[in-house]
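your task:
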Amino acid sequence: FYLAGNIWLFPLGSHPFDFGNAQFWAYVARVYGPAQLYYLPEVTSLARIWGGIPYIEASFPYEPVIAYLSTAIGWINSLLFAGGGAFSVTSPQLGYVIKSVNVLFGLADALLIYLIMGAIKESRRWQATAATLFLFNPAVWVSASIWGQTHVISIFFVLAAIFLAEKGLPAWAWLALSAAVLTRPQMIVFGIFLAIVFLRKFSWQQNLWAVSWTVIANFVIWIPLTLATSPSLPVDIMRNNFHIQEAGGNAPALTTVSEGAYSIWPLVTYLAHGASGLQRAFTPSSTLLLGSITYQLASQIVTAVAILLVAGALLIRKWATSEPGAYLPIVAVGVTAFLLLVTDVVATHFLLALPLLLLCRRWIGTLAYFYVVAIWTVSTFIPMYGELALVLSGQQYPLFEAGHNAFTNFVVWLYSSDRFITVSVTANICALLWLTLFAFRRPAKSPTMRSA
C-alpha cells in the first residue's frame, strides 16, 4: 500500500523550483561529474526548466552525500532509460527515479523507527504504531512523492546513527552521524546533540577509535571533490549557506521570517506588525522587530540560547545517556525548538523532527504522544501542500490545481487563513512546551529495570 500509494502520487505534481533543481543536479553530476555541481549551476540559466521563470541561480548547497546521491540517480536514469547515454533534464523518467529513491528511503526510515523502538524496549505494538505513523504520514508522502524533497534521506542517516548507538556500535554510529550532517545544513543541529550523546554514552577509548576512523572515512569521501575544487570546500559550503540563509546575504525578498512554515514568527509578525495572511510568513527577516533588532538577529539569539540549553542538559544529566534512549526526548526538544525559532525555515524541514517525536512515546505518555505527533503532522502537511498548490502550474498539473481539485482549494484556504495560522503556531508552541516538560523530568524506572 505504501509503495503503490506513493507511485500513484508521482505524476500528480512536482515543485517547479526545488524539484527542477534536483533534476538539473542529477543531469550535471551524470554528464560532467559530481565536482561540477559546485560550478555549473552558478552559471547556467534554468529558466527553461522552471517553465520560463528566471527565479534565482540553482547553487548546489549540499555536502558530498547528496552530491554522490545525485550522481547515482543520474547514472540509474541513464542506464534504465537512455541506454547509458545522455538524457533530457526535464524527462519525466528522471523525476520518477528521484521520487522512487525518496520512497525507498522513506520505507527504510520506517524500518529503522521500528528497530529503534525495539532497541529501547518498547512493546511490539508501539514499535508497529510508531513505524506506521511515519510510513503512512501524509506529510512524508507529499514531501517525498509530490514535492520531491530529500529530507527522508537525511532522516535515514540520523535514525541509523541512533540505532547503531543503541546496539553498542560506536564506530558505525559516528560514521552514520557524519553522513547525516553531510546531507543538508540543518543537520548540523542533529550532529551537535547526538555527538554529545555519543561522547557520554561510550568510553573515551571507544570514541577515540570511532572518531578517528570517521575522520579517515570522511577524508576519503571528500577527496574526489576537494582535488577538483579546493581543500576548503567543506567550510566554503557551510559558510556560504549560513551567509545566504542566516546572515543577510540573500535578497530581502528571499530571506523571510518563514518560507511558509508555521514557526513562531508568523505569530510574532501578526502581533507586532499586524501582518495578515501569507504576509505573516513572508515578511522579510531584515524587518526591525524591537529597536534596532531585526527578526533575523532575534531568531539567531533565541535559537543559539535554545541549542546551548539543550546541549548543556545532555552534558549534565547522566541518566540521559545511561538509560536506553533516555536522550531521545531531549534531542527532540532541541530539534523542534530549532525549527520553531530559526527564520527562513521551509515547511518540509519540519519533517526532520517527526521521527524523533515518534520515538518519545515512553517518556511523554500516550495522550501527549498522539497530540504532539498529530499537531506536528498537520502543521507540516498543510503549509507544504498549500505552497505546492500556489506554485504549481494548472496547465501542467491540472489534477492538483485548486480550480480542479476541491481538496486543494480547501487546503489553500486553510494555508492562508489567519485563524488557522494562529491556531497552528500556538499548537506547535504548546507541543514543544509539553514535550519539554516531560523530556527534562527523570523518567521512572520500568518494573524490569527495578527488578534487575
